[in-house]
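Quick note —
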Amino acid sequence: MKYTITGSNLQFVNAEIQPGETLQSQAGSMVTMSGNVNMNSKMEGGFLAGLKRSLSGSSFMLVKYNAEGGPGQISLAGKAPGKILDVDVGKGTWLCQKTAYLCSEESVNLEMAFQKKLGSIFFGGEGLILQKLSGAGMAFIHACGDFNIIDLKPGQVLKVSTSNAVAWEETVKYDIASLGIKNAFFGGEGLFVTTLTGPGKVVIQSMTINDLAMALIPYLPQPSNRGESSWIMETFSQ
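Predicted structure written out below.
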């Protein structure tokens, strides 16, 4: 499979598949496809596997793309401003935050993974369930903001603000650490931070989708007490 990633903060994966090759994605990711591409929604792995995928933030069914009579072109994108990263899971298994999976070659396995430590579940910001990418081939993950990719050496520790860890290789240890009461009240980062210990690569995002939503709240129009019609007139008169 040939592919390119285009765009800056609203990126596309542009894939070219040959007859006999299959690209799969979560539902709702396709933006364009050439006329010779067929798409088919499939409950990959059966009902239980579909349920596990939906619990991990992906879609219950995966969408399969196949080309007929020659190369087919498919473009896919995420649902929020951000970046798309290609990862070769044939070189090692990856763990990702919930909803990070966008698409992959069919040989990639998308599974549900669980946090191993209770501290990470309650205070680390990623929750109980993660996405696990294994098998062989290329996979593409998407998250809000820009990405910083760091290759940790054995024993090297990186402290990350809550929820900003997008993905990491399975060899990386994921845990939490306390910032202290003083920093929690005055530092603006909360009481805990995520700690990632090498070896392995980690992907950090500059902004989470929750950060983006909170930043936009002050700019959303507010209805007045005089009713919806008055609010509409005030909005358009500004």
